[in-house]
Specification:
This protein has 225 residues and is α/β, with parallel strands linked by helices. It contains ten helices and six strands; from the N terminus they run βαααααβαβαβαβαβα. It has a six-stranded parallel sheet, sandwiched between helices. Helix 6 links the parallel strand 2 and strand 3. Helix 1 packs across helix 4, helix 2 packs across helix 3 and helix 5 runs parallel beside helix 10.
């Protein structure tokens, strides 16, 4: 079997800074009358890979007594639309990766998405950007219990000699580094938080790239093996 490329979705393939991040900020405001600070957003991003949980944590730390399901429901109203008809913030997500690079990579490698987002949201974005055909498998939050579980499923499904994995958050990189045949790389998210490259390196990223396109080019050019 060939090396498998595993991509995170949010902040790597799609820019969710104007959708998920906006939904976090608006949900926090709607329940606490104040938008979250950049420090709160950064700290929550370090603590969790789940944006519903991030939102709940910020509110909880502010002393707001609210149920998690209520936070999640309001978040999804904003993100997908109240009828869950994909009319919300999900439509404001720039595509971050050049499809020509995905095409070239797909000719050499099997490619998989392992994400904390629901599969239907991932599928919506891929189809909208004409990129669904490049990926062999998609495992979202209902198909795997976190990034480590998703990577273990990739190993079980494909039995690859190695996996090249990229993510924009520290906790998945830490999880990936517990698996012997996974090489983890960091991608700076679109928000470009100050010091985030250092955060990803400290989490175990073998190298950090400013853009996912640079990461893909490094693979195609043989600078990552």
């Amino acid at each position: 079997m060939r090396t498998i490329l595993v991509f995170d979705n949010d902040g790597v393939l799609r820019d969710e800074s104007k959708s998920y991040q906006k939904a976090i900020s608006q949900t926090v405001f709607d329940f606490s009358d104040n938008y979250p600070s950049e420090e709160e957003l950064i700290d929550s991003m370090k603590e969790s890979n789940d944006d519903w949980q991030r939102t709940y944590n910020i509110l909880n730390q502010r002393g707001i007594n609210i149920k998690f399901d209520e936070v999640k429901e309001h978040f999804q109203d904003l993100y997908l639309g109240k009828k869950r008809d994909f009319t919300g913030y999900i439509n404001d997500e720039p595509w971050l990766i050049e499809n020509i690079l995905l095409y070239k990579l797909s000719k050499r490698y099997e490619m998989v998405i392992v994400s904390g987002a629901p599969r239907e949201e991932i599928e919506f974005t891929l189809k909208k950007n004409y990129a669904r055909c490049f990926f062999n498998e998609i495992w979202g939050m209902h198909e795997c219990n976190g990034k480590k579980d998703g990577l273990e499923k990739v190993i079980e499904r494909f039995s690859p000699p190695q996996i090249l994995f990229c993510d924009d958050r520290p906790s998945p990189l830490k999880e990936a580094n517990t698996l012997s045949n996974v090489k983890a790389y960091g991608i700076i998210p679109p928000q470009k938080y100050k010091g985030w490259g250092k955060t990803l390196r400290e989490a175990g990223a073998k190298k950090v790239f400013r853009k996912v396109n640079n990461y893909c080019k490094a693979i195609l050019e043989g600078r990552i093996k």
